[in-house]
Amino acid sequence: MEAANQAKVDVAEARKKGEIGSKEREGLTLQNAAKIDAETKIYATRRGGEGRMAEIKVKAEVKVYENVREAEVAEANAELAKKKAGWAMEAQVAEVEATKAVALRDAELQKEVERMNALTITEKLKAEFLSKASVEYETKVQEANWELYIKQKAAEAILYQREKEAEAQKAIAEAELYARQQVADGEFYAKKKEAEGLMALGQAQGAYLRTLLDAVGGNYAAMRDFMMIKSGMFQEIAKINAEAVRGLEPKISIWTNGGGEDGHGGHGAMKEVAEVYKMLPPLFKTVHEQTGMLPPAWMGTLSDSHSTNSALN
């Protein structure tokens, strides 16, 4: 019976362990599956975000490239339009010159025809037994007409020359105007860059002051004292006071700690440091008298007594 009971106990224990192990396996399986699903979702979301970021970046670069190309095309079109205008003007000038040349040649031929007609008429009149006076009169008339014609052509040539000179002056004026416009554009660009530089300098100084103020915990007095020390304002004030009292007999207080020797009668290694600290009380007092500003608490306090021990904490 004991063996049978022990067998029942062993079976029950084995069944318990089997059921517990099965539940643990199922729980671990569910946990691992949930963990894998979460990691998969995170990875998919991350890859999707990176893909969208890359797509946005590519679109921005394409847009920038398109804008640059449009600007280049517009510039090329403007340059082509300018060249076409110049070519059209040259063609018109050549056409006018050709028309004037044809007119001049026609006038010369007409003059020759009229001269030959005059000679023919004169000979005909002579042949028809006109009197000498009539022939001379006709000849004089023809000569007068000829002179008048020459004067008219000369006047037309002078007018044409003046028109060409006016056109040349107009072209020179346009070139000078274009050059002035280019100079003005260059000056405007230089002024613009100078203004941008000043703005950048102001922004940098503002960032420096904000950083310095944050470093001292927002204490404006500490920042002011730091900047005064860094810029050498205390030394400058001392120099100005020294120049102001030069040649006078001012009341001068000598700050000392009982001589330049240590307690044993010799010169200690901290003598130079002590000398520096000896100069601070009168310097702070002078600054307080001149500006009304007190030194920061971490450097020392001023008092109305003349003792050395109460000058510095």
Automatic annotation (TrEMBL):
Protein topology in the membrane: Lipid-anchor
Region (Disordered): 1-23
Keyword match Cell division: no
Keywords for the protein's UniProt record, in alphabetical order: Cell membrane, Membrane
Signal sequence annotation: none
GO CC terms, sorted: caveola
Comp. bias (Basic and acidic residues): 10-23
UniProt subcellular location: Cell membrane; Membrane, Caveola
Family under the similarity heading: Belongs to the band 7/mec-2 family. Flotillin subfamily.
Name under which the protein is recorded: Flotillin-like
Organism: Prunus yedoensis var. nudiflora
